[in-house]
């Protein structure tokens, strides 16, 4: 049965994710709580995994009900902040600034969040895709691939790279519960998936191996003209305005709609 297997949001951009049982699609088209907070340096540039490997030195936990955000360094130093309070965001910015050795501000956007593609919506992947990618590498678990790719929406009961069918000419849409998703673009990957999410160590030949296997297993239902290259995994989708404000719930059924 095709179903919504997992919902995951990333409260502070660039750091760890949090599984949730339900999430509203915001007016801006993204998921409630996803990249709601972000760290910016004095020049206005965001701090994330593309910029620094040091993000992998931080373990985080977040309670979406209370706004409590806990962080622990590899050395065992801990801190906790209520990110919903402006004064606490200032304190958090100072703590992270000391850790990253940068002058930082911690900003909040509760309407859309600080996702990379702010005009688009949630990211989608299938459980089978994660399992398949994991099989391409020694010592890379399914959970490890899940943490490397950092998708919001995970769908089970469908084949690997199921999400590829929703981009290109005449691509269909799909529904999760009563929320319509329309594919926008395949997600081209950066350096982050090539690193161990716990240690930051680079997996040898990750990109080369990934591209080779992706080419070999490219699904017949996908439109190759919609892909610029094979270093892609995950779909970036859009939720039409009419469906924003509705909630996604783990266990919701998934239905492919006619093109």
The percent range for strand residues is: 25-35%
Strand order of the largest sheet: 2-1-10-9-13-12-11-15
- Tell me how many strands there are: 15
**Largest beta-sheet characterization:** 8 strands, mixed
Q: What separation lies between the terminal Cα atoms?
A: 21 Å
Proportion of residues in helical segments: 10-25%
H-E string: EEEEEEEHEEHHEEEHEEE
> Which parts are unreliable, with pLDDT below 50 for 5 consecutive residues or more?
none
Q: How many helices does DSSP assign?
A: 4
Silhouette: globular
Q: Averaging pLDDT over every residue, what do you get?
A: 95
Radius of gyration: 18 Å
What does this structure look like?
The radius of gyration is 18 Å and the shape is globular. By secondary structure, the protein is α+β, with helices and mostly antiparallel strands. It has an eight-stranded mixed β-sheet with strand order 2-1-10-9-13-12-11-15. A three-stranded antiparallel β-sheet has the order 5-6-7, with helices on one face. A two-stranded antiparallel ribbon has the order 3-14. The chain is 17% helix and 29% strand. The chain contains four helices and 15 strands. The relative contact order is 0.20. The model has no long low-confidence stretch (mean pLDDT 95).
Topology:
Layout: E1 3-9, E2 18-20, E3 22-24, E4 37-41, E5 58-63, E6 68-73, E7 78-82, H1 86-100, E8 104-108, E9 123-126, H2 127-135, H3 142-149, E10 153-156, E11 174-176, E12 179-188, H4 206-216, E13 232-238, E14 247-249, E15 254-256
Parallel strand pairs: 9-10
Antiparallel strand pairs: 1-2, 1-10, 3-14, 4-8, 5-6, 6-7, 9-13, 11-12, 11-15, 12-13
Helix pairs in contact: 2-3
């Amino acid at each position: 049965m095709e179903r919504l297997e997992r919902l995951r949001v990333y409260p502070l951009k660039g750091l760890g994710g949090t599984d949730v049982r339900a999430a509203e699609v915001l007016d801006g088209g993204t998921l409630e709580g996803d990249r709601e907070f972000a760290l910016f340096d004095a020049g206005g540039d965001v701090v994330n995994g593309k910029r620094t490997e040091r993000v992998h030195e931080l373990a985080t936990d977040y309670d979406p009900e209370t706004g409590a955000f806990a962080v622990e360094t590899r050395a065992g130093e801990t801190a906790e902040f209520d990110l919903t309070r402006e004064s606490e965001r200032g304190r958090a910015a100072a703590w992270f600034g000391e850790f990253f050795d940068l002058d930082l501000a911690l900003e909040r956007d509760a309407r859309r969040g600080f996702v990379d593609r702010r005009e688009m919506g949630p990211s989608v992947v299938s459980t089978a895709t994660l399992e398949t990618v994991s099989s391409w590498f020694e010592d890379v678990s399914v959970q490890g691939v899940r943490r490397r790719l950092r998708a919001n929406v995970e769908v089970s009961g469908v084949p690997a790279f199921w999400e590829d069918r929703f981009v290109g000419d005449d691509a269909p849409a799909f529904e999760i519960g009563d929320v319509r998703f329309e594919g926008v673009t395949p997600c081209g990957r950066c350096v982050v998936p090539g690193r161990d999410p716990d240690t930051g160590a680079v997996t040898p030949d990750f990109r080369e191996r990934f591209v080779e296997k992706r080419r070999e297993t490219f699904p017949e239902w996908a439109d190759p003209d919609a892909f610029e290259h094979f270093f892609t995994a995950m779909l970036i989708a859009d939720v039409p305005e009419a469906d924003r404000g509705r909630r996604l719930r783990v266990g919701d059924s998934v239905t492919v709609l006619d093109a």
